[in-house]
Specification:
By secondary structure, this protein is of the alpha+beta class. It has 10 helices and 21 strands.
């Protein structure tokens, strides 16, 4: 075959001039079906087809379509120029199909009408797959007699969607690094739609390329799990002090209890059952001692002790004497030595294109680009920290997952919990703190509305600059592989601020916004200071977290959650009207 490589290269170059898709498919037909370059060609064909779909929809101009096609041609030529005889022969025996370890954690008891995280992991080594997973009755381990570079995992409702709503938070087919000592994880968020006992299916398959398309080669696991879905009874107020099991990361909000729980999402239940809006922040009277006018990017606080912009957090009066033993808030005589989410940065008003460019890779349609104009406002330089939370609320959240790190962002707090925090904070400081709107959040993440992919001003996600799932198995064309920390880290510790000086706008933790969520809101929202839909059942979350792959950490990525749900990758950042 080595003698024919120049002929194949010439054929591809000639064909791509007039028919780019045909050139890709021709090369696919010549390579061995399990050649590593098949995956690269599969992605190229997907980008080409995406451009055709955009062209048909008329959502991008001709110059943008030509740019995409030109980049696909360049990438194809790069693949062609590096062809070797190994690309045309079968991989060595047992190099692509091996035995491995599968672990899945699907809670047998789920709260009705609330999302529960379900996890499936595949790894070469059992101990790697078990990392940070409770080994209880909800966790099942299997030896896979076969697994390969491409694997597919599905979670499905045999009733066709009558019993469960299932939302995946990862690609169905993922590429596994067979040489790395790490696991590949699939995440699903399951919402029981009615009470009772029902079955749910987990299916795992080996994938191969056939005529350029990924198809199932062999189903290696197919099992049914019985789920009990039930209403969660209300609890007395005294039970609020009891810690609950952490909800899952990213978008899940209940996890498997080690024993049948008596309640899940205590605060959520009250508002959802009564169909009432979440508690609002009562108005507070404006102080006469307002801070001086600010220039864009100035750091300031609402603490009236300060008469000029400062990097110190405002003084917070402890809610009771117990506080003094746990957190000493900074004062004028004792400068703050820690980073605080109460440190504000001035954001000038302006007009920008909200949503993602139509050619941005991995963008969903809910990121519809539209023009938005905002008035000036302030936003937190950092995410609110554990120490910030204790200074106001006396103690840590009951479900805090990553305890003992004052400078780490507070997590496992619901939208309703955050409203309680903001109310007390404003009472103690006389300030006017609030959550940012979704538009304010994205404008700030883009460093003042710039066209960038990530919240640190970069178009490439680098684990040295953003805390996200940086494993090789999660790598995309717009990220680099590196450390996966699998937890939150101190705010600002990666020292990668954006143009406004804001830290961790991508990754570390998801951040609550004030808006109700609306999937079609972008197409109907007002152009000036959009507040979000007038009503809804879920609140907006932005930014991605330590848990997520790069796609979910993009500045334009939108997500949502019920206002009473808590999980270990969700926190918040404060805002304030100027």
């Amino acid at each position: 075959m080595a003698a024919h490589i120049p002929e194949i290269q010439q054929k591809v170059r000639e064909t791509l001039v007039d028919d780019l898709a045909a050139a890709i498919k021709y090369l696919q037909s010549q390579l061995h079906e399990r050649s590593p370059k098949q995956d690269e060609l599969f992605l190229l064909l997907g980008r080409f087809n995406d451009a055709r779909r955009i062209e048909r929809q008329g959502t991008s101009d001709a110059d943008e379509i030509r740019r995409i096609d030109s980049q696909v041609r360049r990438d194809l030529l790069s693949i062609v120029s590096t062809l070797t005889p190994a690309d045309f022969t079968a991989p060595k025996s047992n190099a692509d199909i091996r035995q491995g370890h599968l672990l899945y954690r699907i809670p047998h008891l789920m709260p009705l009408a609330a999302e529960t995280r379900c996890i499936v992991r595949i790894a070469l080594d059992a101990e790697v797959a078990r990392e940070n997973i409770p080994l209880d009755t909800h966790t099942v381990e299997k030896t896979l007699k076969k697994f390969s570079k491409s694997m597919q995992v599905e979670l499905s409702d045999p009733s066709g969607g009558r019993n469960f709503s299932i939302r995946p938070d990862s690609r169905c087919v993922q590429t596994i690094d067979l040489d790395a000592e790490e696991y590949t994880e699939w995440r699903f968020y399951v919402t029981p739609l009615r009470a009772g006992q029902f079955m749910i299916e987990v299916k795992v398959a080996v994938i191969e390329l056939v005529d350029g398309e990924k198809e199932i080669r062999e189903r290696v696991l197919e099992e049914e799990i019985q789920i009990v879905a039930e209403h969660q009874p209300a609890v007395a107020k005294s039970a609020a002090e009891q810690p609950l099991k952490n909800g899952g990361p990213a978008l899940a909000f209940a996890d498997a209890p080690t024993e049948p729980p008596k309640t899940v999402f205590k605060k959520a239940e009250r508002w959802q059952q009564q169909n009432l809006p979440a508690p609002s922040v009562p108005p507070t009277e404006e102080k006469d001692t307002a801070p001086p006018p600010l220039k864009p990017g100035d750091v300031t606080t609402t603490n009236t002790l300060f008469t000029k912009p400062t990097d110190q957090a405002p003084t917070v009066t402890p809610a009771n004497p117990v506080q003094a033993a746990t957190t000493t808030p900074p004062t004028e005589s004792t400068p703050a030595k820690r980073k605080s989410g109460l440190t504000m940065v001035a954001v000038p008003g302006g007009t920008f294109s909200m949503g993602s460019p139509t050619a941005e890779q991995d963008r969903p349609t809910i990121e519809y680009p539209h023009s938005v104009t905002l008035d000036a406002y302030n936003i937190g330089k950092y995410e609110v920290t554990q120490a910030d939370w204790r200074a106001v609320m006396v103690k840590d959240p009951a479900e805090l997952a990553f305890k003992g790190c004052d400078d780490c962002p507070v997590e496992s707090v619901s939208w309703n919990d955050v409203q309680d925090f903001i109310t007390k904070l404003n009472q103690q400081t006389g300030g006017h703190y609030r959550l940012p709107t979704e538009a304010e959040w994205e404008y700030a993440a883009r460093g003042g509305g710039k066209v960038v992919r990530f919240g640190n001003g970069s178009n490439i996600a680098d684990p040295k600059q953003i805390n996200f799932d940086g494993r090789a198995s999660s790598k995309t064309s717009y990220s680099v592989a590196g450390e996966y920390r699998s937890k939150t880290i101190p705010v600002g510790s990666l020292n990668s601020p954006n143009a406004l000086g804001l830290h961790d706008m991508s990754g570390n933790i998801w951040e609550w916004c004030s808006d109700w969520y609306g999937g079609d809101y972008y197409q109907n929202s007002p152009n000036s200071n959009p507040p979000g839909p007038a009503f809804g059942s879920r609140r907006v979350m932005r930014g991605g977290s330590w848990l997520n792959v790069p796609q979910f950490c993009r500045a334009a990525n939108r997500d949502n959650n019920a206002p009473g749900n808590r999980y270990d990758s969700g926190g918040f950042r404060l805002a304030r009207t100027k």
